[in-house]
Design brief:
The termini are far apart. This protein is an all-beta fold and about 240 residues long. It has a single domain, classed as Jelly Rolls (Sandwich), CATH 2.60.120.560. Strands 2, 5, 6, 8, 12, 15, 16 and 18 form an eight-stranded antiparallel beta sheet that branches. Strands 4-3-7-17-9-10 form a six-stranded antiparallel beta sheet, with no helix packed on it. The chain is built from no helices and 18 strands. It binds magnesium ion.
Length: about 240
Amino acid sequence: MAQGSSGHTAPIGYDDTPLIPGTEWHVHDGTRPQPRVITPGSGNSQNEPPSDATVLFDGSDLAQWVGSDGQAGWKVENGYMEVTRTGNIQTQEHFSDCQLHLEWAAPAEVEGDSQGRGNSGVFLMGNYEIQVLDGYNNPTYADGITGAIYGQYPPLVNACRKPGEWQTYDIFFTAPRFGGQKLISPAYITVVHNGVLVQNHRAAMGPTGHKRAPSYDEPHPAKGPIMLQDHGDPVRYRNIWIRAL
Ligand code: MG
């Protein structure tokens, strides 16, 4: 599953998980082809929110966010927030279709490997994870690398910057529609990572899961929060804004 610190390379990912519907790949399949590595351009950072955006984090406080027991416990300093092993945080306001911009940085000091290095995540509606990971020279299973729709779609390319450098996500999201217990249309997700298209209007197969096949068997509310994952690694975020569509 992970690379040992001794340098010994163990198999990456899983082969005992269910097949992802419509594909020949197991969930988190270690043999699924890796996205091609590219070098993104250096711009596209510190984008100013447009006038009609809701600013979710401007670097000063977590007023827009809550934790699992009320208070959002992440650290705020120097214009960014940082994961502090106090649990996931999510927006007080709930959203459906949206455009979301955020910037993140994996720890400059590299620790761990595979899924244990700079892991966090952006969950649309609290349910659909765009993976945040230090994917720079860090082999892991393809559907779990940076910019993956976790457990479903690897990114089209690996556009990671080096650990410690600020990176951007611009996410365009169409919420799924349910009629009673039945799915009418799936969630559609487009992701631009550091100015590079990595997910092009992908139809999500259901809410994110770990080691299980995705499905829409359980309908969820029409709106949900933006959730940021605490995976135990001190990942930083800044300049987060959203436009409800
Ligand atoms: Mg994650």
